[in-house]
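Please, structure for the following, as C-alpha cells.
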Amino acid sequence: MCRSIKTLREPYTPEVTDADVRAAALQYVRKISGFRAPAAHNAEAFDAAVATIAAATRTLLDELVVRGGTRPATPAGN
C-alpha cells in the first residue's frame, strides 16, 4: 500500500520539508479514502485527516533515533 510514498527519514532524505510531510499525508489519505479529491461535503473531514496525519508524521520524524545518529534535542522547558 502507498508504495510511491517516499521514505522521509535520514539517511534516505537528508532534509524533510513541511511540503514533503504534507504530500505524504495527502497521498495516504487519498489511498485510504479512495478519493483523489473529496466531494464538498467531505472536504472538511478529508483536510482534517491530512493535517492530523501530517502532524503525527512530523512528530514521528522528530522523535526517531537513527542508529549511529544522535537523539533529538529536547525542547526548552521539557
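The helical segments are 18-33, 43-63. DSSP finds two helices and no strands in the chain.
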